[in-house]
Amino acid sequence: MLISFTMGVVLAVLAGAAAFALIFFGLKSIKAGQKAGVITGSIVGIIAGAFVMMMAGRAVVVTGENEAGTYLVYGSPTYEFSNGFKLKLTMESLDAYVINDSDQELVLEKIIYTSSYSVEDYYDVLIEPMSITKMPGTSVHYFFNDTPPDEIETQQSSGDVTKYWLRSRDSYENDYGAMLYDTDYKSIPAVPHNTASE
């Protein structure tokens, strides 16, 4: 099942509420007390909601220029590219991929906010047109023209913070020129199978 991130949050809240209600009314019926039902139900509800979110894979689907959506992936759904290629999405929990169902080259740029060391050399991820590419993180924080801020507020104990900006390769190379890209994250092309008759 491939559902929008917002719908996934709603699903997690509903799962948490259902678990809370089940425990609360179960304990109330055996006269364990309302306070015990609220406390235990709340704990179980939070765990159930978190479990729903944590068990999902993540997919950012780009369908056109500056058009992208974030989805949660449960099970092994099939995604059909606009060129007819069908891909079965088999993801572990918290795996994240960019599905580029467009004709543009993209770059997933690492934005590292740090106060502890200077960042000199690191590689961003090139995402080919009509492809699927594993992401180094679990989510994209900025999309296309949504430029990341120069600074962010963090707690002192949070250390270095990495955010990801998905943008066009043209925009990226206009800022930095031709760059080297991370070879650990290669795009897998969505190429339709050869259906020519023999």
Would you give an account of this structure?
Helices cover 27% and strands 28% of the residues. With 198 residues, the protein is of the alpha+beta class. It folds into 2 domains: 53 residues; 133 residues, no CATH class. Strands 1-3-2-6-9-12 form a 6-stranded mixed sheet. Strands 8-7-11-10 form a 4-stranded mixed sheet. The C terminus is likely disordered.
Helix count, DSSP H or I runs of 4 or more residues? 3
Sheet with most strands: strand arrangement? 1-3-2-6-9-12
- Could you say which structural class the secondary elements and strand pairing correspond to? alpha+beta
Q: Percent of residues in helical segments?
A: 25-40%
The secondary-structure element order is: EHHEEEEEEEEEEHE
| Biggest sheet descriptor | 6 strands, mixed
Terminus-to-terminus distance: 36 Å
> What amount of the residues lies in strands?
25-35%
Integer-rounded radius of gyration: 21 Å
Q: Give the low-pLDDT segments.
A: 194-198
Report the principal-axis shape.
Answer: globular
Write the layout of secondary structure elements.
Blueprint lengths: L1 E3 H25 L4 H21 L2 E8 L2 E7 L4 E3 L5 E3 L7 E5 L5 E8 L11 E3 L3 E4 L7 E2 L17 E8 H8 L11 E2 L9
Parallel strand pairs: 2-6, 10-11
Antiparallel strand pairs: 1-3, 2-3, 4-5, 6-9, 7-8, 7-11, 9-12
Helix pairs in contact: 1-2
List the main descriptive attributes of the protein structure presented here:
27% helix, 3 helices, 12 strands, disordered C terminus, six-stranded mixed β-sheet, 2 domains, four-stranded mixed β-sheet, alpha+beta, 198 residues
